């Protein structure tokens, strides 16, 4: 059985926006057997652009039921059924968040008619619902209203079922979870019940000891992928034989999943997480100056009172890192020319040029601003997770309410759970900030 669903919302972001209308059409694979739709009071203003597109106004939803009033109806209609939608990630996301706001979970298998249409009906000019329906001669009554779009999606889904000669739909529902791929001692029901949300997952042995820790934006799909594709080597096959359980911890977003994975691996030292297990850093690479004012990198033992530019596990590795820096940026040549520069009276200009180059190099090892919070989504839609960096040092992360005063920096600091800074963590944060240009930051001064 399939629950074909469409929602209209106050805006276009599942995390922040609320449902204004929902339609659920129950389909048995041959025909529609039940239909339900209702306006929803979102308890907030509707974006004027969205209101103009859907025709749903603040006045129309003022006396409509709250989502809390219809949640049991949504549960009854969708329980045990496949959640089908055009761009399922959006509709599933907004419904899941409405459940979260009420302290409930919503987990359903999903099918996306956009994705299915591309595979089953390739070569069409567009796969937006409107253009797709034009191509397939499907008439949409009340476009951009929940029931009208859901009814059109229902007809589209019937056409996909009729034309699915390669059993694409069956394959999508299986998601790689075919007989024989799971560890012999791991039940299929455990994997099927895993959430399709960001977080950290744990492979456990018979005694509940952690064998391996991983992270994903979709825990269920990643775990299935492990067993389908990843466990090919002899060492991985050995781990597979020992897996009896899969546990997980939701994080609300990918960045916190990355941080938690790194923390947990170093805390629990799983035997099959070889590359990320904790390293004992004993050497530091510090910035020093010679008697002529030339700045240079020097290897020294780590100090409690001074943070190095970089850390290394051994003197040999530390010296190799320095040599690579000098070679890549041609730093050593300037220092070796000092006697000649003194004789020529050009030492000052060369020193300034050299030190400016060192300053440019240092930028790669520090954040663009030394004190800031990264703002990300949290598990609870009414909260945000803050990742705290001060003096270029990672401090930890914690959750705050969306209604908190984000200008009160000292208050925000009190909400952070402290974690140990580590080169791996700073690497994760720098990489995230580099690739995620629209990341929201709260910068401040000490």
Compute the number of strand runs: 16
Gyration radius (Cα, Å) is 28 Å
Give the overall pLDDT as a whole number: 89
Fold-level CATH name of the largest domain: Nucleotidyltransferase, domain 5
CATH architecture of the largest domain: 2-Layer Sandwich
User: Percent range for helical residues?
Assistant: 40-55%
Distance between the termini: 59 Å
Give unreliable regions as ranges: none
Kindly name the structural category.
Answer: alpha+beta
Physical arrangement of strands within the biggest beta sheet: 3-2-1-4-5
Query: Can you tell me the CATH superfamily of the largest domain?
Result: Ribonuclease H-like superfamily/Ribonuclease H
Q: How many helix segments?
A: 18
């Amino acid at each position: 059985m399939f629950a074909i669903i469409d929602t209209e919302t106050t805006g276009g972001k599942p995390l922040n926006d609320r449902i204004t209308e929902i339609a659920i059409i129950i389909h048995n694979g041959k025909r529609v057997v039940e239909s339900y739709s209702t306006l929803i009071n979102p308890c907030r203003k509707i974006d004027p652009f969205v209101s103009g597109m859907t025709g749903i106004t603040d006045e129309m939803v003022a006396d409509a039921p709250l989502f809390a009033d219809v949640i049991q109806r949504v549960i009854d209609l969708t329980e045990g059924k496949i959640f089908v939608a055009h761009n399922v990630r959006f509709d599933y996301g907004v419904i899941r968040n409405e459940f979260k706001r009420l302290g409930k979970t919503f987990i359903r298998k999903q099918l996306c008619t956009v994705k299915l249409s591309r595979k089953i009906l390739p070569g069409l000019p567009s796969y937006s619902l409107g253009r797709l329906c034009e191509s397939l001669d499907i008439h949409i009554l009340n476009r951009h209203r929940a029931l009208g779009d859901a009814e059109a999606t229902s007809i589209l889904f019937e056409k996909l079922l009729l034309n699915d000669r390669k059993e694409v739909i069956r394959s999508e529902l299986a998601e790689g979870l075919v007989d024989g791929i799971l560890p012999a001692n791991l039940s299929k029901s455990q994997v099927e019940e895993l959430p399709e949300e960001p977080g950290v997952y744990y492979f456990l042995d018979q005694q509940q000891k952690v064998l391996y820790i991983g992270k994903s934006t979709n825990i269920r799909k990643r775990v299935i992928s492990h067993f389908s594709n990843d466990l090919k080597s002899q060492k991985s096959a050995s781990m597979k034989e020992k897996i009896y359980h899969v546990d997980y911890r939701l994080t609300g977003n990918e960045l916190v999943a990355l941080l938690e994975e790194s923390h947990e691996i170093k805390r629990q030292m799983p035997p099959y997480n070889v590359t990320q297990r904790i390293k004992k850093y004993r050497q530091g690479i510090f910035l020093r100056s010679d008697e002529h004012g030339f700045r240079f990198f020097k290897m020294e033992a780590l100090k409690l009172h001074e943070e190095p530019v970089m850390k290394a596990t051994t003197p040999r590795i530390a010296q190799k890192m320095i040599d690579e820096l000098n070679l890549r940026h041609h730093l050593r040549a300037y220092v070796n020319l000092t006697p000649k520069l003194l004789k020529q009276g050009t030492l000052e200009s060369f020193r300034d040029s050299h030190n400016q180059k060192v300053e440019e190099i240092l930028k790669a090892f520090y954040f663009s601003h030394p004190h800031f919070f990264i703002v990300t989504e949290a598990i609870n839609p009414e909260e945000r997770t803050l990742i705290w960096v001060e003096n270029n040092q990672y401090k930890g992360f914690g959750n705050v309410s969306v209604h908190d005063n984000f200008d009160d920096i000292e208050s925000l600091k009190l909400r952070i759970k402290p974690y140990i800074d580590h080169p791996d963590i700073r690497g994760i944060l720098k990489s995230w900030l580099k690739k995620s240009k629209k990341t929201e930051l709260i910068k401040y001064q000490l």
